[in-house]
Write a structure and sequence with these properties.
The chain has helices at residues 13-27, 31-48, 57-69, 83-93, 95-104; strands at 3-6, 76-79. The longest helix has 18 residues, at 31-48. By secondary structure, the protein is mainly α. Helix 1 runs antiparallel to helix 2 (31-48) and helix 4 crosses helix 5.
């Protein structure tokens, strides 16, 4: 098994995810309870993705190609902007502190 751990990649994910989150938080019976949090998460996504802040998807495609062609591929490949940093931060902080850090951004 090989795991590819991409960092922040320039795709349409951020826009699609934030738009969907906003729409669904307004369209449910729980809109009042979740709208504030959903909008904060969507705002962070809008700020984080796009505008050249991530890595070209070709970088990940190349890593996948390298792993497929390798006679003995590594178990894990971290590639793209912030990938190694986030893995290191998570290891250093542990799961609970890492989750709190991520939630504090939202």
């Amino acid at each position: 098994m090989v795991v590819i751990e991409p960092g922040q990649i320039e795709t349409g994910f951020g826009a699609a995810a934030s738009q969907g989150l906003r729409e669904r938080s307004r369209a449910t019976a729980y809109a009042t309870a979740y709208a504030t949090v959903a909008n904060r998460v969507a705002d962070v996504m809008d700020q984080s993705y796009g505008r050249g802040r991530g890595t070209d998807p070709k970088v990940i495609a190349d890593v996948v190609g390298d792993a497929v062609r390798a006679a003995r591929p590594r178990t894990r490949y971290a590639a793209g902007k912030y990938a190694r940093l986030m893995i290191g931060v998570r290891k250093w902080l542990g799961d609970r502190a890492f989750d709190r850090l991520i939630l504090s951004r939202m």
